What does this fold into?
Amino acid sequence: MHKSTSKQTIALAQAHGASAHKVPIAALVAGALGASGFSLAIVAGLLSENDASSIFFRATVALVACALAGYAVGLIFEWLVRMESARLEKAATEIIQAESPKIGLAESEVESENVQASSQRRESVGVSSRKSGR
It folds into this structure.
């Protein structure tokens, strides 16, 4: 009996941990790629011995282009995280439902836990969205 309860706890923890999206991945990737593009453009301009104004202009263009590309890649990453989170939550729900007769959980308790997990996920996504400005 204790073993099935620990499986349920692990499944719920994984589902809650995966759904707690706290870092705005798109903004993080956009910043990293933008800074990398800017740095590479500066180095390339210095190595080719261009004048300073053309180096900074080209580096700024590279910054914007790489940041936009990084934002698109980050949005794809965020989508993948949401899909995996939904898959884990579904798997956890199936485990809980399979184990509920063995550990004495009623179907309403399982549904109550799912509703509670969904509301917590919405709250954490809402907080991270406000922080990232979306």
Observations:
- Residues 22-132 form one domain.
